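Protocol step 4 of 6.
Sequence for L,D-transpeptidase catalytic domain protein (Lachnoanaerobaculum saburreum F0468) entered exactly as in the expression construct, tag removed. Do not edit the line below.
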Amino acid sequence: MQLKRFSIVFASALMISSSLPPDTFAATIKRNVTASVSPEATETAESTTEATESTNGTTESTAETVESTSADNTGTNTAPDKVGTGDISAPSDHIPSTVNNVTAPSNLDLDSVVAKAGFEKVGNGNTNPEPVLGETQMVHYVLRNASEQDISAAESNTSAYAYSKDGFNNLFLDHSGIGRYYFRTYNTKSGWSRWMNSKENENNTDPEDKVQAVQIRVKGYTGVRSDLYYKAVLSDGTVLDWAKNGQTLGTVGTDKYIVALKLTLWDKQTAFSEPTKVLMEAPVYEGTYLDADGQVQYSSANAYTGWAFYNNDQYYFKDGAKQKGWQYIDGYKYYLDENTGAVVKDLEPIMGLQSSYQIRFNKASMTMHIMAKDGNNGYIIPYKTFMSTNGPATPEGSFKTYVKYRWKIMHDNIYCQFLSRFKDGYIIHSLIYYDKGDPNKLDSATYNYMDDARSDGCLRLRAGDAAWVYYNTPMGTPVIVYTDYSTKGPVEKDAIEQPIPASQTFDPTDPLMQGNN
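Step 5 output, structure tokens:
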């Protein structure tokens, strides 16, 4: 393990933050948020690298530091107030580094440190309007207190960042563009939260339970085109590097917490030139990484047992070892790829078609799980996982399918195909077609924006998924509808990775239209 001496320069500067009104997103999604802090309003930091020295074979060096030449009220420049220090732990080239034993100066000026942390170096991010629909993909992020009040907010496609000198208790994300964001926070008292989608709240109500670390990732079309980077400043003035695509950023095992956060989307075709190595203030990095053999592993202070994600693939570790093959976990029976260990989401190629299934639908995550039977253990095998759309009127409870229709008019001029009715007017069916039962009459928006659409209570699927249910689940198949925000599982659903043009009139997953793709 290599230990380096990390020098943190705490400079004095003034930065002003304000509060956001409660209806933040509706009013600000298409403009810069006034509660965020814009680097253009502060002096630009100059960075230097101090000399390294070697003693008894141990290399001691300073990381890049931030030096202030900010002007005071008289117009003269002022030098940095004081330098704090810490030890950088760099166990290998594959595991993100950490800094620990940080000594902060007694006269720490967080406003100045945050202003010169280097957030401005990524500018407005690097995402041009995507070519299919012409949308600008962005994420809006909000720091909230224990009363769910907005403290500070910003968007990824602006130069602003979010800053709360006293920390924050909850993180909230919203977004535009086709994709789905997942995030979770590590708090001083409650530890890791559940995984949340953008537009979800954790509702942490303890003002002393502050966010110390975050993991944020994006899947779907936005994740195909761009990497998500995020950078933070801690309450002791530690300026961390840029984490990426679900990596852990922040601190664990200390009394420090995050005070400033910046997210940016970066086109995958363009190199990201900012530092990405030092991600935590902790003795050891906590999270997944890719080892020298290209295998996903988990780094932690203690042998880790539990689920983890790497690039949106789902893995399970037991006592620090990645599991493979058939495994009983949390009441389910999973198949983990024999090579990579990733959860296999479609088991039809592994198990073949089954004689019976159970359909489980989680309204909270808008996910349909097709469950296969494990002998006397019942339907505990996640056989297939479908993204879906439901609505507030979708009934909860246990039902059974009892009639099917190839095409059906729903109301007015709206038609659907591949229908399986499970209760009264509530049906599992395809997306929406207009004017007649014709696979060339699709409303393309219901495909592209499945995550944002809401039905009148039916369960909408893409045509290919609805067709699979229609043809492969027998009449009388159990349908269990429930709401559970605590888990996105047993398997996390996919997202739309390739949107269709607004003018396209067919579902690209429709088995009858495959020749048109």
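Step 6, annotate. The chain has a mean pLDDT of 87.
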